[in-house]
């Protein structure tokens, strides 16, 4: 396996030693350039790097004034918004530890993270999040302070604006001394895993882990000075956090979403970003939107084949034959340009991670001029370990290791990773740490392979592999991804461990199935009622039959059940990053699953 040398940070980066000194260096180096962009009313407003540096200093000194010291833990419970970034860097500049909490978490889930981490303070978004903390406050003995990003009239809550006012009473010298005291080995954050296989575990990541990770992505020009990244992913997740830190380090602009899933595409069109990090579900949604009024399947496949062929010729510097160029130009005018417009028209690169995505979707976007590349990693790798590069990629792979990262395949197929970005361990869980890091190698739990060119492929999760009653090992991800390419299917969960054949639980996409039902002259748009209709059963059967045609008999789905509602985080079936909690789904729908084997 190729071993790459350590990454060298970009020349435009701050050259910071820790995440604490990063913000002041960025403020000086990038000065009047726009750091953050957010929408207020109908207008997009900018926060310059100068302004960002001042705000963070005020937040840091404000936190110090209410008793937050180096080593203390501070929770952040909020949507992705500028104030999240102010709070994050304010905590880091003190040498305290940021503990992100997903804004969609229940009160009990918030309690688990804040209690387990022993958070001394929590910076939350609004009344909705405060209500969760109020519900569990008596079970959080370490919690002393509550700060709200939005105005709240409560005696035990201080607003972020009031905290900043307190911070203005501090001196530049005090701020600089606190920042200088932070060491690379100090813990920067506890990021709690999304809990697909049990209670969340707190991943301990220090400043040096993050700084090495930033050097790696900057060596690959993932983020570029003066360019715009659109950010809707939850900052409680390591992926979004890396974008936040990396963009500020190199002088890029972060454009924050409007905190409404229905506004993601309108925001893209308005902000016109050059870089768009996302998760497969959003690309699947955009794919459905982009192909909703496409010509028949054969014509669409031909347009994709044409686009990929021409762009591959261009990528490798080869001449495009005139007849091929003419056909490409016609397809560009009729289809490709419209797809690029959905992303704002300026996209240079989009990145997808956190879950598998169908290769057909990647090829579709590539044909249209939107390069969507897969990367791979986990919280335990401080976000990432491999990346496809704009000039060196293979669809279906998750790319090659970042500079300084080593990847190898264990005898049982598990992917092992070593590098300076590997986390320090799980907080208060030495047993799990010892099982995960063995002789400096991180045991990822993912199954995969490495091809002759060094590209890494993920073929499944060790715990997701289905072993049928006949002893056949099957990875369900491909079957599920192929099913989800159907615009009317939202989720597909394949089942069959120790069973004689595979079955699937399928949910309908509420946004897509209602118009379809109207076209079919059905008398209801309700997914729960439609799930029982023969027309819907026939439509899903057609999708299942198409997928079965791509695999051998043992891997085919023999029966399926259409559930009356979609899977969601609120019902405990999805993680905040929209990954399926298989154990929850299998347990919750055990009766439906058993019925398919009677």
Kindly summarize this structure in a few lines.
The protein is of the alpha/beta class and 598 residues long. Strands 4-3-5-6-7 form a 5-stranded parallel sheet, sandwiched between helices. A 5-stranded mixed sheet has the order 12-13-14-15-16. It starts with 18 loop residues before the first helix and ends with a helix.
List the helices and strands and how they pair.
Layout: H1 19-30, E1 34-40, E2 43-48, H2 49-65, E3 73-77, H3 82-93, E4 97-101, H4 107-117, E5 121-124, H5 127-136, E6 145-148, E7 157-159, H6 160-167, H7 172-181, E8 187-192, E9 202-206, H8 207-219, E10 228-231, H9 238-250, E11 253-256, H10 264-271, E12 275-278, H11 280-291, H12 297-315, H13 322-342, E13 349-352, H14 359-368, E14 372-376, E15 386-387, E16 400-401, E17 406-409, E18 414-418, E19 425-426, H15 430-436, E20 437-438, E21 441-450, E22 456-461, E23 466-467, E24 473-474, H16 477-484, E25 489-495, E26 502-508, H17 510-519, H18 527-530, H19 534-548, E27 557-562, H20 582-588, H21 590-595
Parallel strand pairs: 1-11, 3-4, 3-5, 5-6, 6-7, 10-11, 12-13, 13-14, 26-27
Antiparallel strand pairs: 1-2, 8-9, 9-19, 14-15, 15-16, 17-18, 18-21, 20-21, 21-22, 23-24, 25-26
């Amino acid at each position: 396996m190729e071993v790459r040398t350590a990454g060298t940070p970009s020349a435009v980066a701050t050259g910071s030693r820790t995440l604490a000194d990063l913000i002041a260096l960025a403020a000086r180096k990038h000065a009047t350039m726009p750091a953050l962009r957010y929408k207020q009313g109908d207008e997009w407003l900018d926060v310059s790097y100068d302004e960002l540096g001042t705000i963070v200093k005020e937040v840091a000194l404000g936190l110090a004034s209410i008793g937050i010291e180096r080593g203390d833990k501070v929770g952040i419970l909020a949507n992705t918004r500028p104030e999240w970034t102010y709070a994050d860097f304010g905590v880091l500049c003190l040498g305290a530890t940021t503990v992100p909490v997903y804004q969609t978490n229940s009160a009990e889930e918030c309690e688990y993270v804040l209690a387990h981490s022993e958070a001394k303070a929590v910076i939350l978004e609004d009344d909705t999040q405060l209500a969760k903390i109020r519900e569990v406050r008596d079970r959080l003995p370490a919690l002393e302070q509550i700060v709200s990003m939005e105005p709240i009239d409560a005696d035990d809550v201080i607003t972020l604006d009031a905290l900043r006012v307190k911070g203005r009473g501090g001196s530049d010298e005090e701020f600089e001394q606190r920042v200088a005291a932070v060491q690379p080995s100090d813990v920067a954050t506890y990021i709690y895993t999304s809990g697909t296989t049990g209670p969340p575990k707190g991943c301990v990541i220090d400043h040096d882990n993050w700084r090495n990770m930033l050097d790696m992505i900057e060596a690959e020009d993932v983020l570029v000075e003066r360019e715009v990244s659109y950010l809707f992913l939850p900052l409680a997740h390591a992926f979004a956090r890396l974008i936040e830190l990396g963009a500020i380090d190199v002088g890029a602009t972060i454009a924050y979403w409007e905190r409404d899933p229905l506004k993601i595409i309108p925001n893209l069109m308005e902000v016109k970003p050059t870089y768009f990090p996302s998760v497969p579900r959003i690309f699947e949604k955009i794919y459905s939107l982009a192909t909703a009024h496409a010509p028949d399947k054969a014509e669409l496949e031909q347009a994709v084949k044409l686009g990929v062929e021409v762009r591959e010729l261009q990528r490798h510097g080869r001449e495009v034959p005139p007849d091929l160029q003419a056909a490409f130009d016609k397809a560009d005018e009729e289809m490709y340009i419209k797809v690029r417009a959905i992303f704002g028209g300026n996209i240079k690169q989009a990145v997808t991670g956190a879950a598998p995505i169908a290769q057909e979707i990647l090829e579709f976007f590539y044909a249209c001029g939107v390069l969507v590349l897969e990367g791979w990693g986990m919280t335990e790798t401080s976000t990432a370990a491999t990346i496809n590069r704009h000039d060196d990629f293979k669809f279906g792979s998750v790319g090659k290791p970042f500079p300084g990262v080593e990847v190898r395949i264990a005898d049982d197929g598990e992917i092992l990773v070593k590098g300076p970005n590997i986390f320090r361990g799980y907080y208060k869980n030495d047993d799990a740490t010892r099982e995960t890091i063995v002789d400096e190698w991180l045991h990822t739990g993912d199954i995969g392979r490495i091809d002759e060119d060094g590209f890494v492929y993920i073929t499944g999760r060790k715990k997701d592999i289905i072993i049928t009653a006949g002893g056949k090992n099957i990875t369900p991800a491909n079957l599920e991804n192929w099913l989800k390419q159907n615009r009317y299917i939202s989720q597909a969960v394949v089942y069959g461990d120790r069973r004689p054949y595979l079955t699937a639980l399928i949910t309908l996409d509420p946004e897509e199935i209602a118009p379809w039902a109207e076209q079919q002259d059905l008398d209801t748009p309700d997914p729960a009622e439609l799930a029982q209709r023969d027309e819907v059963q026939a439509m899903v059967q057609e999708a299942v039959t198409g997928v079965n045609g791509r695999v051998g008999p043992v891997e085919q789905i023999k029966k399926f059940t259409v559930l009356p509602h979609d899977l969601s985080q609120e019902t405990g079936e999805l993680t905040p990053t929209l990954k399926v909690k298989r154990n929850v789904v299998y347990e919750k729908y055990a009766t439906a699953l058993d019925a398919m084997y009677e």
